Amino acid sequence: MPNWDALRNELLAETVQQAVSESPLFADLYRGLDWRAVERVEDLPVLPILTREASFGGNHLVRSLQVGAVQFTSGSTGQPKVIYRSRQELDFIARFFGEANSPHSRHPTPLAVHLPPMQHGVSTPIPGSVLSIPSSVASDGLLTHTIQLLHNTFSAPDIAERVSLLSGGQTEVVTLTQALLDLGIHRNELAVESVHMTGRSLTSRLRSILEEYWGVQVVDRFSMAEVFGGATWCVLCRAFHFDPMIIPEIVDSNGNPSPACVIGRLILSCLNPFVQMLPLLRYDSGDLARGSATVCGQMAFEHMGREAHALVDGKGTILLTGLEIEDELDKYPNVARSSHFEELKLVSDHTIGGRAACRGRILKSDGKSLDLLLEVEVKNSLAGSKEALMSLQRSLMEAMLLKDYERRVNLTVVPVERGTLPPRYKRSRLWSWS
Amino acid sequence: MISDARIAELVELYKAAREGDDTALIPLAESAMSQYAIAEAALVQMEVHSRLLRGSMNMPSGN
User: Fold this and answer.
1) What is the DSSP string of A101-117?
2) Do strands A431-433 and A358-365 pair parallel, antiparallel, or not at all (unpaired)?
3) Which chain A residues are closer than 8 Å to B62 by Cβ?
4) Which pTM was predicted?
5) Largest interatomic CA distance in chain A
6) Does A100 touch chain B (CB under 8 A)?
7) What ipTM, to 2 d.p.?
8) B30·A221 Cβ contact <8 A
9) Beta strand A431-433 pairing with A194-198
């Protein structure tokens, strides 16, 4: 069983010290606190939580370092946040993983096709024992090139003949899969043995589409542009394990540690020297998670979607998580979804990986009951949708009943015509009071 | 500038944590954008999956 805490404890005190002495944001935030007492992972809760709103301003940056890479958050609700990585941290990452990952240890070197979400800026290169070929699905030409790469036979010394790994952003991998289905290309014509992707949590529908096509278990990766590292979905635990350079915590609405298996806010701390220029300590990720039973011995986390998509009552009780809503909505083919890469002619369905178009309203809330309305855009006839939406309504009600809520909850799901609702973004709130 | 000795020390801690991890489920470092590490992590998962299918992996006890 890996014990990442030894590495985390080794670096934590130094990380806090560096943040306070080099970043004016942390000097202000921790003024008057006994931050020197933070030496071990379990000491972290004495520090306040860092909000996204307070982060990434001019006072956050460590100005004694030189910028080596510029990266961006997804900026799904407006201006992306600019993330600076210093030359010093890139140098450290290259040296550390050059030694730790034994880059030349596999013969022949496996080949990967990687479809990065281009909006995130400069990659942080990390030495590994894989030769990775970047490609794209952003146009029919690039998509064709990507498919050719998967078909290609390479004949150079010491590298694999065929591409065996496919990785990239969820939207990109899903779009490629749709194109391969549309073109009638069977997986046996390709040699892909593993599919690995980043992005939002995979819904059950998408996971089964991908696993059915590729014939392998799809590995999901939780990551955020502002955080170096992330968490890898474990095929054994069916949950995520965080990388050693990140300390994850799950806290309740008051910032106190959540009991095991209780949904809370996911708080992340990044360790120096892996992150230097924009230190992040007890950073509120904006996501919900819960600790999960683990098979392989490491701490495991279930990602429960964005906090902004959850249904939370006035007392902070989470009645429905974004993932529960998304997963249920995703089961109904008639639900309208956002589209991607609309200009692609090789792809028949541009909405395959899209987000369901919906809006939640809290109509009434008092001590005894909670009345909710969920409007869902549908693709085809409204009349034909009612039965499916009743079934959706029942499933969501059941999910809420499982939370053992003391108030009576009434949820009505209504279909609305396509294009009626405002667009829904990653960080926009799904539920509002009306 | 971090010294080679300090890097070697941290790598040792990293490797020590990996030892005894019979599942080889190594959470590899990567940024959201790192092409190399995403592929590396995929490779590890591929190995785990194939070992599971072969039945050659000893499942550790859960907690």
Assistant:
1) S-TT-SSSEEEEEEE--
2) parallel
3) 293-297
4) 0.88
5) 72
6) yes
7) 0.80
8) yes
9) unpaired
